Amino acid sequence: MSKATLKKAVSEPVFLVSVLTVALWIGSSLSISGFNTWSHNITFAQAAVYLGFMAVGQAIVVISGGFDLSIANVVTMASVVTSAMTQGGHSAGFAIGAALLLAIVVGVFNGAGVTFLRIPPMIMTLATMTIIDGSLLLATDGTPPFGVPPLVTFLAKGQFIPGIPNVLLIYAVFMCVAVTFMLSAKWGRRIYAMGTNERAAWLSGVRIFPMKFLIYVISSLCGGISGILLTGYIGSTYLTIGAPYMMFTVAATVMGGIAITGGKGNFAGVIAGTFLFIIIKDILQVIQMPQAGRELAQGLLILLMILLYGREKRQR
């Protein structure tokens, strides 16, 4: 490997974020009692993968040049629908199918607004976010359902392999599919091209409208999958179950080196960014930092990563 290649690899966000994550984990293991235990590491990994599902959806949208503020609300919607269908006596398959179908509907709705009505993605998904919140309040009268399918609980907390929760295996398969999708010439390269220059992508033959529909459907499906599994992990649902994740998906995406202007970044960075964000969040909780302080720190981290990326881009 040449020095130039090595220098380029070391300067990539995924490398820097991975090194920082490992350094924080080692430092915390040495200084915080009980941090480096199997049970804590598994709990940490589980927290990361639920965010990881959503971060992939957000990353695809951002790489394409868009933004999805509604993904966290899709998490809540999928969770509430899964519980409501179960409470109503429906099978686990029906409950999961209904939740994923509604997630697809939300994705189509976002895609239609962004493409046909030409509403800016941030405004469109903000409107969708509000519509979902209002619809859930209206449908539940403010009281969330309580049913959780045993199958969903098993998928989230059960263990095919002793000591490893099933959700970690599901996430591994999910990421293999996601990486394959983004590396494909037919799909991934077109998404990157759209994010780099949408008009140039269109002139080169990329069908912009269908691609945008697909992108927003994928994002919503990622939120739906996370919401279903999160319900099984927690064992219940509530009307704000997905609320914190709106900012979390942005943080994980930005920390992973996804350019908020589109066209740059990869899923290795998203994974690294997700684990970095969760370990920082975990450390702040362990040291018992007040909620206000944690939110301030998280916001400053997002700003710092954006500034660092902007500086790197100018230097290039």
UniProtKB/TrEMBL annotation:
Report the source organism: Treponema parvum
Q: Which residues cross the membrane?
A: 15-35, 47-72, 92-110, 122-140, 160-184, 213-235, 241-260, 267-287, 293-310
Q: Does the keyword Transmembrane apply?
A: yes
GO CC terms on record? plasma membrane
**Subcellular location as annotated:** Cell membrane
**What InterPro entries has UniProt attached to this entry?**
ABC_transp_permease
In which broad location class does this protein mainly occur, judging by the first location in its UniProt entry?
A: membrane
Protein name from the UniProt record: ABC transporter permease
UniProt keywords (A-Z) are: Cell membrane, Membrane, Transmembrane, Transmembrane helix
Superkingdom assignment: Bacteria
Any one GO MF annotation of this record: transmembrane transporter activity
What membrane topology was assigned to this protein in its record?
Answer: Multi-pass membrane protein
Q: Keyword Transmembrane helix: yes or no?
A: yes
